[in-house]
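As a representative case, the lines below give one protein's residues and fold tokens.
***
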Amino acid sequence: MSEPAFYPRYAERRLSEALEDSPVVLIHGPRQCGKTTLAQIACAPRRLAWGEDTAMPRGRDYTYISFDDDVARGGAEADPMGFVADLPEGVILDEVQRIPELFASLKLEVDRRRVPGRFVLTGSTNVLLIPTLADSLAGRLQIVRLHPLAQCEVVSRSRNGGTVDRRSGFLDALFGGGFKARQTERLGKQLAERIVAGGYPAALARPAGRRRASWYRDYVEAQVQRDVRDMARISMLDVLPRLLGAAASQTARLFNLTDLAAPFQLSRPTINDYVALLERVFLMERLPPWYSNRLRRLVRTPKLHIGDTGLAGALLGVDAAALAADRPLLGQLLETFVFQELRRQASWHDAPLSFYHYRDRDGAEVDIVIERGALAVAGVEVKAAATVRSADFRGLRKLKHAAGARFAGGVVLYDGEMTTGFGDGLYAVPIRLLWETPLTTGTKPALE
């Protein structure tokens, strides 16, 4: 049997829902994370090369246009209004951030004739951070955020031409009934391997080690030369890959602009602008602090997280063996790995989830704080160790006190074997259950 061509993407259900009632749907996320493939699976399956044992899905048959093509981009830039007016009924516009003039024309066309699912856009720039673009389609645009692959998507790939629905129930357990006592096999050396593998489909298609790391380094260079250069005039483009490497060394730490700027002969405001550019193309992000009026001694500095741990490992020059031997770095990358996995799972979760971190001036902290609307708060602490002690729940207990009745649960994720309760809605949970917790909510599978 042939290998399947694609990984399942559980954000597909979000896309299908958006196409039913929104005239413009934007799939945005970093380059090479799978946006084009997802758009074509949902809207233009005939463009895809399906394996011999895979039945081609039926459904929409949209026209596909990529603005990485010089001719298509030139035509849209020369006459945005005419370009949009001549588009067919259903169309995918790929890498639309390269033609910012198009957004106003799309707004006028949608106002003239509002048809659900008419335009599907993909973009490798976060338009929410560009107010003029986001505002032009306010009320007309539904955004579907796509990340690199989550671990539960990686393990869902089947070898028989189909897919197995292995969406994790971790978030439901965290905000719902908690975690039942059970024993599982610890990841051990597989943990470092998963961290440095990352989640980009094209990188995972390469052999682990030198070839995969080479893909990630080339990827950064391509991002700088394409999207970043399109967004801003920067005379020293070579600074950006080095700045991203410096950020990788500080991932999961409090954001410190002075430390980031230190290796460069550039001002702090300039480095801050460069950080903002890297955030706009999803290569890094700042995790805001969570705070409560119940607590006065909180640290209100954001944390820095690199966008993908495979990218971080390649930039830092560490493979799985080197990472496993460097315990401080392992702890940093593991925290970012868990944070990104939770963010990826949240992108298709039914409830709106917001992410923060918690730290006070007494040294108590919670690596990841998740709010479910205004109703519930949960915390996740991450440890690379194989054991958990009561003292490891110090920050979670403070978070519980600060959240009061809104506190839903707290977990210390660790590389051990036993899931067990530590009282008052607190649990020690093996890291592998982050993507292997069974889904028990009865939610309809995203892929069938």
Q: What stands out?
A: The longest strand covers residues 365-372. Confidence is low (pLDDT under 50) at residues 1-5, 50-58, 441-448. Residues 170-436 form one domain. The chain has 19 helices and 15 strands.
